[in-house]
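Troubleshooting: if your tokenizer reports a length mismatch, compare your output against this known-good record of 377 residues.
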Amino acid sequence: MDIYVVKPGDSVDLIASYYGIPPSTIIYDNQLVYPYPLAIGQALLVNDGESSSPSYPAVVGGYAYPYIREAVLEETLPYLTNLHVFSYGFTPEGQLVPPQVDDTFMITAALNFGASPVLTLTPFGPDGHFNNLLITTLVNNEEIIQTLLSNLLSTLLEKGFQGVDIDFEYILPEDRIPFADFVAQTREFLSPYGFHVSVALAPKTSDSQQGVLYEGKDYALLGSAADSVLLMTYEWGYTYGPPMAVAPINKVREVVDYAVTRIAPAKIDLGIPNYGYDWTLPYVRGTSAAKVIGNVEAVQIAASAGVPIQFDEVAMSPFFRYEKDGLEHEVWFEDVRSIREKFSLLQAYGLRGMGYWQIMRLFRANWLLLADTFQIL
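Known-good structure output:
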């Protein structure tokens, strides 16, 4: 696969002619929409006809809600090792709370495609947000832990899941060790049945990093407690923050630099965002809220507005500005260039694989690039 950056005067036909391939290949691989307008600076994935035999093995996970479109799921599953079903909650008494939408079709589809369905466990309160008091109630009460583990095992066996991913956020600092103990206990309980236990980690860069996302997550303890970990290396640019890259490579690298000093690299999966944000300017802290958009949608916005896509060489991420209804917007998203930079970290650090948040929107070029780069386990 080659990456071609659109220049002034380019068209799909001209680019296809340059590579000696049918225009339909470029159109399909990059999800272009008729009449196939291009934005200057747009990165296209081009199948140059050369065969590749990727040798670096990688585990690939993808998170999805049970309302994912079946067509998107089925096109994505061939590229996944694990499908993380998001999500199962639990009550203060340790009873499991399944997703509101039946997830049976996801489990069945994953198994049919040879991917492992994974139950994602989250401590959501009645308001649908992460609840650290619920975490405290669980990790400090052995009776509740045993009830939850028993219910987890029953559900895993009954529904055909092949693993558990523990995604607890906003853990109180005083629950740092009890939470790590809970992860270790979950692994010990489920391991005899062949279930893999992973844990999601906020993107820390030091042991002493302060903040509600970080203080309750001990990289060394959790790396030892779980079979594998996912670094949530995204959300530097986020809904309520100022415009910036969602996963700037310089920031991602800082997290990996720290993580490999606390956790064996062969246990680490790199988090990759499959989305971007559209901010309305001017940004006002406490008032502004960016809109989540897909990576394909972002390019369509730029092409429709007739504005060039720029590329930040520090963040290694694409962005652009456009005007709509008299208001200026700034968009940051992922393209095959930024994804390729993230892929390069796996081999550089010897990481286990990657996990996508999330796969609800199809980004076909990403999956084609992935298959051209890695031997998917």
